[in-house]
Amino acid sequence: MEIERTGIILRVERFDECVNFYHQLFGLPILFESQEGDFRLACLDFYGAYLMIETGGMTKDGEKKDGEKTMAENPTRLRFNVRDIEQAAVSLKNWGIEPKINRYPWGTTINITDPDGNSVGIRDEQTFLKQLEN
What we know:
Elements: E1 7-12, H1 15-25, E2 30-36, E3 39-46, E4 49-55, E5 77-82, H2 85-94, E6 101-104, E7 107-113, E8 119-124, H3 125-133
Parallel strand pairs: 1-4, 5-8
Antiparallel strand pairs: 2-3, 3-4, 6-7, 7-8
């Protein structure tokens, strides 16, 4: 098998809010958008792969509630590695998100949720590179 491209499909209920979240907060360029009846999708450049956001998902507990989905509702976490985790925290605060920085022996992270309650992680790139060297 010769892989040409990789991507992730994220089905959401709060479509416009989620597209805006990934496009504006993380700066993911929108490659294209499509609509067929009630079905909508937006394809964003995910730093070499793509993030396809589609309608048809559900929010926490299948209802429009705020908060992080349980592991049973969504066991996946999207991860963004950043050069400066402190600057990432400032960007999150400017977006209205109160970040909690978690420091571990293997690296530093911030865990947040998108508007649908999907888990999103931010990690420092330096310690990730050190892990790659081992």
